[in-house]
Rhodanese-like domain-containing protein (Haloferax marinum), 122 residues
Amino acid sequence: MGKIRPDELDARLASDTEPFVLDIRPTDHYRRNAIDGSHNVPVYDDIRSGDENSLRQHLDEIPGDKDIVVVCKMGVVAKRATSLLQSEGYDAKTLAGGMSGWTGYQKGSVGYKIRSLLWRLL
């Protein structure tokens, strides 16, 4: 399964090949902090509990002609959503570290720098 690091996503968002960023977190979390231009489909709790049908009901909102980057809080539940999207034919990746990773990247935190080094090594 594919993943994309926050710095890679940031570069893609500034390019001509901008991906569709699908944020699956609950709406209140999304409203508090989200990646600019992302789209919220609040299916996090359903997918976490094993109900993939909630995401399938929103497939018409997800473009089939763009790369998809799936975002959740830490990236764990997004991996499940990414897997489902891939099985449906989407070119989907999970944002490594989720919004926690993105926020750390934006702030240049030491925690992000350590995780980024580990992502590159693994």
Summary: The beta strands are 3-4, 20-23, 39-40, 68-71, 92-95. The two ends are 14 Å apart (CA to CA). The domain at 3-116 is CATH 3.40.250.10 (Oxidized Rhodanese; domain 1). The mean pLDDT is 92.
